[in-house]
């Protein structure tokens, strides 16, 4: 059993990660277009290019972590080594030097690339750490539930505090406000990563014969894992729709609902809904098959997302209610998905004899980031395509395009996820059988 104290310590790592992750998803596009003055078309293209570059490094980082040998374990050391660089580069990404148009683009490209690379260096080992805290499938859901409650706490901090802190620190200078706000949040994130490092323990150490020495052999063994392939495709489609919707949330409130002063309230209530979803994931997983439950969650999320299309701009209460409910339902599936990744690691070892914890997590995160890249790029391209202009009253055609992109397009992503997940066969019974066989083999 993993103690509550250790689960909280592990969760703090994702609080720290989400201080940057949620800021990037919710505010970075808006920061680039409305604060730094870069065109939305360039932002969309940059997001796609940088995130693809970054995503390619994920499997390499995972393979490196699998081979790491230290007195702290395989994955924990990276929390210690990269906490401070992560905080410093986060601040640089939200700094606005007075360059010309081309210089701004170069600076944004370089700092955003560095941010994504250092995020990889600390987040891949952090995610893989969750798979070696316990071998109990039920405890894994519990660990991931704690993790994502604390992850959403980080997101809640971002949604509730970012804009008020920007006003407080900036005193009318929004560029300065963003820089000082991210500086304060990053300092807190560094401390949380260190708390995660000191408060957790790696318990699963695969026998030497279960660790491949060849990078290429790791990739070959990974590809033999058909259930990994299902989760990889799920991650891509899932994040494409999710990031598109969350990226456009600020624009939806400011320009469609025409309530710019309610942006913080809108996204904060959405984050609270996400936290509730993560909390109820574990009790639901105890009662229902995790695979069927996940499919049902995605179908319901698609329906709630699409419903926003039919909400009139003056019906603010319903618009907020649907967004909160969508976040609750959608994020009920998040701990379930990450628990499935740990199950997929066991499945790969059971099937091939080789355990590739870091590779499984990093490669699925590759597809998560690819989905983030697609979703972010779609957001920028769609804004450009519908004729969006920063800080002006939008035309009715632009508002209609924004509503469509915020509601119906992300719903398609969830429906595709539900369809792909029907090919996943590691249900509760199968996972229990695999766990028992691996335990017997280790004795």
UniProtKB/TrEMBL annotation:
Keywords: Cell membrane, Membrane, Transmembrane, Transmembrane helix, Transport. One of its GO terms (biological process) is sodium ion transport. The chain crosses the membrane at residues 12-32, 78-94, 106-133, 145-166, 178-198, 230-251, 263-281, 293-312, 318-339, 360-388, 400-420. It is a multi-pass membrane protein. Pfam families: MFS_2. GO terms for molecular function: symporter activity. This is MFS transporter. The lineage of its organism: Bacteria, Pseudomonadati, Pseudomonadota, Gammaproteobacteria, Chromatiales.
């Amino acid at each position: 059993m993993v103690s509550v104290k250790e689960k909280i310590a592990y969760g703090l790592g994702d609080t720290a990660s989400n201080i940057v992750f949620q800021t990037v998803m919710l505010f970075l596009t808006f920061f680039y277009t409305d604060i730094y003055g870069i065109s939305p078309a360039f932002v969309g293209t940059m997001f796609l290019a940088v995130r693809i570059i970054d995503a390619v490094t994920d499997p390499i980082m995972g393979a490196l972590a699998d081979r790491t040998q230290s007195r702290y374990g395989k994955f924990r050391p990276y929390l210690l080594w990269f906490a401070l660089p992560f905080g410093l580069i986060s601040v640089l990404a939200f700094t606005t030097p007075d360059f010309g148009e081309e210089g701004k683009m170069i600076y944004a490209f370089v700092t955003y690339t560095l941010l994504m690379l250092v995020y990889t260096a600390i987040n891949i080992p952090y995610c893989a750490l969750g798979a070696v805290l316990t071998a109990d499938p039920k405890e894994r859901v519990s660990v991931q539930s704690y993790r994502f409650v604390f992850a959403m706490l980080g997101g809640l901090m971002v949604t509730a505090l970012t804009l008020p802190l920007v006003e407080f620190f900036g005193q009318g200078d929004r560029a300065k406000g963003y820089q000082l706000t991210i500086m304060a949040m990053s300092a807190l994130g560094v401390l949380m990563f260190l708390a995660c490092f000191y408060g957790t323990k790696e318990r699963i150490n695969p026998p030497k014969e279960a660790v491949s020495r060849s990078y290429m052999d790791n990739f070959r063994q990974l590809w033999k894992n058909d259930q990994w392939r299902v989760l990889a495709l799920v991650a891509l489609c899932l994040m494409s729709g999710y990031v598109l919707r969350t990226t456009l949330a600020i624009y939806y409130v400011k320009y469609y609902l025409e309530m710019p002063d309610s942006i913080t309230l809108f996204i904060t209530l959405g984050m609270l809904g996400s936290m509730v979803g993560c909390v109820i994931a574990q009790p639901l997983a105890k009662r229902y098959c995790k695979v069927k439950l996940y499919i049902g969650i995605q179908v319901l999320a698609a329906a709630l997302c699409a419903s926003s299309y039919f909400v009139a701009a003056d019906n603010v209460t319903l618009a907020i209610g649907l967004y909160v409910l969508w976040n609750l339902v959608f994020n009920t599936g998040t701990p379930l998905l990450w628990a499935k990744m740990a199950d997929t690691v066991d499945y790969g070892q059971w099937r091939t004899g080789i355990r590739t914890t870091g590779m499984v997590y990093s490669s699925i995160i590759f597809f998560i980031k690819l989905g983030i890249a697609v979703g972010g790029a779609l957001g920028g391209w769609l804004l450009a395509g519908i004729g969006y202009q920063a800080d002006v009253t939008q035309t009715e055609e632009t508002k209609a395009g924004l509503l469509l992109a915020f509601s119906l397009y992300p719903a398609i992503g969830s429906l595709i996820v539900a369809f792909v997940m029907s090919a996943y066969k590691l249900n509760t019974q199968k996972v229990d059988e695999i766990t028992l066989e691996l335990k017997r083999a280790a004795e």
